[in-house]
Design goal:
single chain, mainly alpha
Length: 110
């Protein structure tokens, strides 16, 4: 059924995933309660929306993102800041890699 989804629907799914992804990251920043980090996130919001629309449309990325978010959530819930930091760093590195692939011309969305 997913393979038969019309492109318009695919774009809508990516938009929903992007919104949920941003909400997850905003929640973490709110927990940290650091005004500087909050301002930085807010100043990058428009770019982040655009970036999420691109990277979450990349093949396999939604599953990777969900898996990372789940593990990060579990680390925070377990009050394990070292694990949460490592997972977040790995997650962001992976997103940067996908972002670079989508802008280098070598990445495939297939």
């Amino acid at each position: 059924e997913v393979m038969e989804t019309k492109p318009e629907r695919d774009e809508e799914v990516v938009k929903i995933r992007s919104k949920l992804d941003l909400e997850f990251h905003k929640s973490i920043v709110a927990i940290i309660d650091n005004p500087l980090l909050t301002m930085r996130q807010e100043s990058l919001f428009d770019w982040l929306v655009h970036q999420r629309l691109e990277t979450l449309g990349y093949h396999g990325q939604p599953e990777h993102t969900y898996a990372f978010h789940q593990r990060i959530y579990e680390a925070i819930k377990a009050r394990d800041p070292d694990a949460a930091e490592t997972l977040m760093t790995n997650h962001l590195d992976q997103v940067v890699d996908v972002y670079n692939k989508t802008h280098s011309g070598t990445g495939s969305n297939q």
